């Protein structure tokens, strides 16, 4: 196991950086940034931090350290070795790599303040310059917050639970319950991880102990380090951006998917479905897109109901579901992933992106934090989730209009 020490017992003034490489983010930040650079480089955007649950102590107490970490983050640049790795991914183009060569996150585009007991973090400016803040800010807040709990006991509990996960997977393999398509899972744990060191240990452990099931990570730095596949395509912000880029609102999903198809020409073919709900997505996901995209990603609502709707849609379009994939990524753990696999894997390929339960299962209550796009080009944007509590929008008038356009709740 990785034995790099946890930041336990550090002197109060000792600075230990959370982020040490700009590769240490989710792959989809790069795969979304490239089409935005090519198609809409002048977009202006605002991203806002939100904590959805009650932390064990007020987040305002870590404001100064978060600020120090962001200052350090803004000093980083991609190394030539990192750029060479990114350039080896066939879907990333040479002009995009050249952009990254001169790229630095700009401190002037982000503010960290205190709002009562809460943290207020806002990134606002050119979208191609502020969108990469999201994952780094979430990783910083998480690690700084959990440093107070980084005890030998917490690490021992995390290792015990990690061993149990490995045992669950080995038991599954020993039972020989493979369906028509194989079971595959991925680490999606950057944003809510206990620490960078702990995520590294988790990924290294799964890659070593159960490589037949563990097929990649969203963390590009760790994918490079361990020679495994970086995983990711698009997030909500990509589709939401098209709500404010001049297309008719009712056509924003089609515009976003078409832009993706033209950018990647067959690569990165998993589409996210829940920006305005699965039903509204499928109404736009016609035969053209169903044939061009390799599959769909679930991130809210009942996963079984969602998967059955996807299968029924492919059947209506006379598309062979065995050639497609359903990727589940909403609050999963290993048993839930195996249960969904057993339900679907004789009918369609599956994949499972597991986040917090892999990278922050230490016997401590995780933070439920997000940093979401709230406006673009001076206009509000929204996510109408299939799960209560996940809907995000600052403008109730726009939210009502979006519901009306897509006939949601009528």
From TrEMBL:
<dbReference type="InterPro" id="IPR041525">
    <property type="entry name" value="N/Namide_PRibTrfase"/>
</dbReference>
<dbReference type="InterPro" id="IPR006406">
    <property type="entry name" value="Nic_PRibTrfase"/>
</dbReference>
<dbReference type="InterPro" id="IPR040727">
    <property type="entry name" value="NAPRTase_N"/>
</dbReference>
<dbReference type="GO" id="GO:0004516">
    <property type="term" value="F:nicotinate phosphoribosyltransferase activity"/>
</dbReference>
<comment type="function">
    <text>Catalyzes the synthesis of beta-nicotinate D-ribonucleotide from nicotinate and 5-phospho-D-ribose 1-phosphate at the expense of ATP.</text>
</comment>
<dbReference type="InterPro" id="IPR007229">
    <property type="entry name" value="Nic_PRibTrfase-Fam"/>
</dbReference>
<keyword id="KW-0662">Pyridine nucleotide biosynthesis</keyword>
<comment type="similarity">
    <text>Belongs to the NAPRTase family.</text>
</comment>
<feature type="modified residue" description="Phosphohistidine; by autocatalysis">
    <location>
        <position position="236"/>
    </location>
</feature>
<keyword id="KW-0436">Ligase</keyword>
<keyword id="KW-0328">Glycosyltransferase</keyword>
<comment type="pathway">
    <text>Cofactor biosynthesis; NAD(+) biosynthesis; nicotinate D-ribonucleotide from nicotinate: step 1/1.</text>
</comment>
<dbReference type="GO" id="GO:0016757">
    <property type="term" value="F:glycosyltransferase activity"/>
</dbReference>
<protein>
    <recommendedName>
        <fullName>Nicotinate phosphoribosyltransferase</fullName>
        <ecNumber>6.3.4.21</ecNumber>
    </recommendedName>
</protein>
<keyword id="KW-0808">Transferase</keyword>
<keyword id="KW-0597">Phosphoprotein</keyword>
<dbReference type="InterPro" id="IPR036068">
    <property type="entry name" value="Nicotinate_pribotase-like_C"/>
</dbReference>
<feature type="domain" description="Nicotinate phosphoribosyltransferase N-terminal">
    <location>
        <begin position="23"/>
        <end position="142"/>
    </location>
</feature>
<dbReference type="Pfam" id="PF04095">
    <property type="entry name" value="NAPRTase"/>
</dbReference>
<feature type="domain" description="Nicotinate/nicotinamide phosphoribosyltransferase">
    <location>
        <begin position="183"/>
        <end position="409"/>
    </location>
</feature>
<dbReference type="Pfam" id="PF17767">
    <property type="entry name" value="NAPRTase_N"/>
</dbReference>
């Amino acid at each position: 196991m990785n034995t790099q020490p946890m930041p336990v017992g550090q002197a109060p003034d000792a600075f230990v950086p959370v982020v040490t490489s700009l590769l240490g983010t989710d792959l989809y930040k790069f795969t979304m940034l490239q089409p935005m650079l090519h198609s809409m480089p002048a977009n202006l955007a605002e991203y806002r931090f939100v904590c959805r649950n009650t932390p064990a102590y007020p987040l305002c107490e870590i404001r100064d350290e978060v600020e120090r970490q962001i200052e350090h983050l803004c000093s980083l640049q991609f190394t030539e070795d990192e750029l060479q790795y990114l350039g080896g991914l066939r879907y990333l183009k040479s002009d995009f790599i050249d952009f990254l060569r001169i790229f630095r996150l700009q401190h002037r585009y982000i503010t960290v303040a205190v709002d009562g007991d809460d943290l207020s973090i806002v990134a606002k400016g050119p979208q191609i310059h502020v969108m990469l803040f999201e994952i780094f800010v979430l990783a910083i807040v998480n690690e700084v917050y959990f440093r107070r709990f980084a005890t030998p006991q917490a690490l021992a509990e995390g290792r015990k639970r990690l061993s149990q996960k490995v045992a669950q997977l080995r038991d599954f393999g020993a039972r020989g319950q493979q369906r028509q398509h194989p079971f595959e899972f991925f680490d999606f744990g950057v944003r809510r991880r206990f620490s960078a060191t702990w995520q590294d240990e988790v990924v290294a452990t799964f890659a070593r102990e159960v490589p037949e099931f563990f097929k990649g990570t969203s963390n590009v730095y760790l994918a490079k380090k361990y020679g495994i596949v970086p995983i990711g395509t698009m997030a909500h912000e990509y589709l939401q951006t098209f709500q404010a880029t001049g297309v008719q609102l009712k056509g924003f999903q089609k515009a976003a998917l078409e832009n993706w198809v033209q950018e990647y020409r067959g690569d990165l073919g998993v589409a996210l479905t829940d920006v305005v709900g699965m039903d509204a997505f499928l109404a736009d996901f016609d035969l053209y897109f169903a044939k061009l995209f390799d599959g769909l990603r679930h991130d809210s609502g009942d996963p079984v109901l969602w998967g059955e709707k996807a299968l029924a849609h492919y059947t209506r379009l006379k598309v062979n579901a065995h050639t497609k994939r359903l990727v589940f990524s909403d609050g999963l753990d290993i048993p839930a992933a195996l249960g969904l696999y057993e339900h679907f894997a004789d009918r369609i390929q599956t994949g499972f992106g597991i986040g917090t339960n892999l990278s922050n299962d230490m016997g401590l209550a995780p933070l439920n934090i997000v940093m979401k796009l709230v406006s673009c080009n001076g206009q509000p944007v929204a996510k109408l989730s299939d799960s209560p509590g996940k809907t995000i929008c600052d403008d109730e008038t726009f939210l009502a209009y979006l519901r009306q356009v897509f006939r949601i709740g009528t």
